[in-house]
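can u do me a favor
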């Protein structure tokens, strides 16, 4: 039987001390390497590669505007700060930022796609294809026939969904849905490019859409009775349970007041 002899105490202390010194040297070496990497010019951001949707911006202008706001090198730069800097540029909706070793950044942009003006007449805010409100120079809008949607704050996506459901319905009338409004009380109102204003009332989206569809399917018959086309509609009120009221240009249902007969024995002066 053999016995394992433990090392003397002084040997164990020497081994422990050597291990501690080795670990300290390793940590110091790593720290020195990291410090060298953080300070070395090789890792200073030398280029920003901008890709993606650049309809209203160009890569050169973006780099010039954003670069002065960036701090740090390849290792220390805050990608969230870079992302926010690009998304603060007009028309930019989202920015995805990545590092490219050893000294570059890659940025992929998505711009807002305007589908409507947002707010009351005269306001310059826009609505994008995701139902999000954003601000940009309206003079840069390429389309001349964007509708105007307005409603309570936070309801822009609901307005856009309703517009997309209602707009195709007016094709038989050869009219375009020009404005759509949701009031604070939850009532819907539209205006066509012919100038006709329509009160759609309150209800679920399905109820509003069905109300509009029923009106569009029958209003031509109503206007034909007065030898008018649907483009003669000035206003329509669809809030009635079993029908609707229509006002037509050049048509009145008010009869002229008939003079009252004179009472015998009286005279006028």
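np, heres the sequence
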């Amino acid at each position: 039987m053999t016995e394992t002899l433990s090392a003397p105490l002084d040997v164990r202390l020497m081994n422990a001390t050597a291990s501690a010194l080795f670990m300290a040297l390793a940590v110091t070496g790593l720290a020195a390497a990291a410090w060298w990497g953080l300070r070395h010019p090789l890792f200073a951001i030398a280029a920003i590669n901008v890709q993606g949707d650049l309809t209203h911006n160009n890569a050169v202008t973006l780099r010039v505007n954003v670069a002065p706001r960036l701090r740090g090198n390849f290792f220390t730069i805050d990608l969230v700060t870079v992302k926010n800097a690009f998304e603060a540029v007009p028309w930019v909706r989202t920015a995805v930022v990545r590092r490219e070793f050893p000294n570059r950044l890659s940025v992929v942009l998505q711009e807002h796609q305007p589908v409507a003006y947002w707010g009351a007449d005269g306001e310059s805010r826009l609505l994008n294809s995701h139902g999000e409100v954003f601000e940009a120079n309206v003079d840069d809008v390429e389309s001349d026939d964007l509708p105007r949607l307005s409603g309570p704050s936070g309801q822009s996506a609901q307005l856009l969904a309703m517009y997309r459901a209602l707009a195709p319905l007016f094709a038989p009338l050869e009219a375009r849905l020009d404005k759509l409004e949701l009031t604070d009380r939850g009532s819907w109102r539209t205006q066509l490019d012919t100038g006709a204003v329509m009160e759609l009332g309150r209800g679920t989206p399905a109820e509003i859409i069905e109300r509009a569809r029923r009106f569009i399917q029958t209003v031509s018959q109503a206007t034909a009775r007065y030898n008018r086309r649907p483009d003669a509609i000035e206003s329509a009120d669809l809030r009635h349970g079993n029908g609707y009221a229509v006002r037509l240009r050049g048509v009145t249902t008010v009869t002229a007041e008939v003079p009252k007969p004179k009472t015998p024995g009286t005279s006028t002066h």
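The longest helix spans residues 9-39. hope that helps!!
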